[in-house]
Every structure is written in structure tokens, then in C-alpha cells.
Amino acid sequence: MRWQDVCEHPSLKNLPFKIELDEYGKIIMSPVKVVHSARQGEIAFILRTLLKTGKTLPECAINTSKGTKVADVAWVSLDRFQIIKDEVECSIAPEICVEVISSSNTTKEMDEKKALYFEAGAKEFWICDENGVLSFFDKDGKLGKSALAQKFPAKIDW
Fold first, then answer.
1. What span, in angstroms and rounded, lies between the C-alpha atoms of 99 and 112?
2. Rounded mean pLDDT of 112-132?
């Protein structure tokens, strides 16, 4: 199955959980709780407030070498947005890709997503843990804070 097929399939519209595709085109479904959505919203709001020269993308589908992955929140520069704005899934990852951890996520899964997003062109990968604490990474490893959004807080209070 291709991402466009997923997007256009009538029985897959308006599902109450996140969908991704693995490298074989199989659908992976992950349920999320209200707190997960609240953290996504706060991260998107703060990104939009701090970085006004780009677009904030919630639930951003990204084409990777292991299928379509969906970043919980992403931020893309206006230049890169011009490349991806009409695509079904991003052919190049937004500069910042954020994953909000939920009980169904594993460290292995987050490490794989981090590698896939960097391979697809991301500049930073962020993880928001179950306590709202953020960790920031670039392709070389962990950062003390984001280089692209230097005033972004280390913890999300909502």
C-alpha cells in the first residue's frame, strides 16, 4: 500500500489513532491519549510563536527508506515548504521533526525514527517524554538545546 492509497481510502478516514506505513506498505496504527494531543498542540504553538519564517506541521507524513513515518509535530522553513507543499507525503523531511512519546512507543522505535528523519533531510529531531521534558538531537548527537529554536523550553507545561 502507498501513502496516497491510505489517504484516499474511505474506511481509513477520521480514525481516532495515528497511522504510518512500514517499509513493506503495511499499516501501523498507534492509539494516542488526550495528553499526547495536548503536548502536540503546545509544541506546535510554541514553534509557531518562536519561528515565524516557516510553517508548523502537525501529524506530518514523511517518506523514508522504511515507509511513511508521521512526525507528531514538524517545523519547515519557507524554502523547504515550497518543495513539499503540494506533496502527499514530504519527499524531504522538515528541518525539525518532533515525536511525543506515548506508552506504545519504544526506545528502539524512536532511535529508528530519528535515523530515518535525518536520512530524509531533517536538521533536528526532538523527543517529548511522558513528563513533557524535551530532548534535542542533531545528526551528531544530543544537544543541550535546539540550535534552530534556541528559546524553545526544555519542558512543556500545559
1. 12
2. 97
Question: 134: domain range?
Answer: 33-143
- In a domain, residue 1? The reply is no
What is the rounded CA–CA span in Å between residue 44 and residue 75? 8
Strand pairing category for 27-31 and 96-100? unpaired
| Confidence at residue 10, expressed as pLDDT on a 0 to 100 scale | 66
* Structural domains of the chain, count: 1
Mean pLDDT of the chain: 88
Model pLDDT for residues 52-67, shown as the tens digit of each residue: 999 999 999 999 999 9
110 found inside a domain: yes
Cα 90 to Cα 125, 135, 147: the distances in Å are: 16, 24, 22
Tell me whether residue 20 is exposed, middle or buried, using C-beta atoms within 10 angstroms of its C-beta: 0 to 12, 13 to 18, 19 or more. Answer: buried
Quote the pLDDT of residue 104. Answer: 76
